[in-house]
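User: Fold this, then the next.

Assistant: Folding the first:
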Amino acid sequence: MKNGEADFINATLNLVWNFGKYKGWKMDELPSSYLKWASENFSNDTWAAACDVVWNYREQTGTHREDR
């Protein structure tokens, strides 16, 4: 992974979710199933793309997580 890419992913992981049940949670704390759903269904393209980045990062690193 390139340095700029790592910085981008790290910044995305630290974004704070502003919606619904998980409002106030960092993207890194959201359940993987919710990230996948939001990436496919969210009407805000920016947030949908952020969810996709985090979900794909977890897919590549084997770090999926579910609701606590």
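Now the next one, as you asked:
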Amino acid sequence: MRSYLAPGLLVAALCLSGCTGKHAPPAPPPPPISIVGSDDGRLEESLFKGDQAVLSNQDIERILAARITLADRHRLAVLRLNQWNVWYRDVADIETQNSQQFLRALSAIPQFTQVRPIPALLVPEKRTIPYLREAAARFQADLLLIYGAHAQVFQRDRLIGTDEVMADCSVQAVLLDVRTGIVLHASEAAETISAKKSPGDLNFAQTVARTEAAATGKALLKVAGSVVDFVRASEK
């Protein structure tokens, strides 16, 4: 004989079976404070643990919060990272003039009592920021201006003319505070110059080298002007 449950008993049985089943899993805990960040929701620390092996969150916070004044920075060292091989006397003279004009432009800052290039003997084999900073410290420089030049040469006989060349030169520079290792200023300048082969050139390669050197000199003066403007603005 079949037995049937009254509707009320059926509902009660279902409730009892639900009560004796598994409970819903608890809510997940809130994420750690390093992921949540500050009270306003901004992230304050790295989300990747591997970053700590390079630079800790505490060090990054100190770096970003640092406020550096240039009032007591009076000695500037200058270093060119890449050196070009010069095989022609007139090109070497242009490179020398470029360096002298660059240093004179930087010396226009009254606050600088010394503006000197770092001697080649002090330039480290590994030209990374820590080693360059050490070299500048040994040279007793407060600031280090590191720059590099890159040139591209185009020869378009049909468009420009026979024995004619155009050089695009760009110069990048960073101003480093030797005490803290902070990059205070970065600048970049570009210059384009066209030139023809002169009767005194031994070959077209000499024309190209002379054009590169001339373009580099003009770009260097633009970079020097950017550094001068930055330092003068920081004095106000």
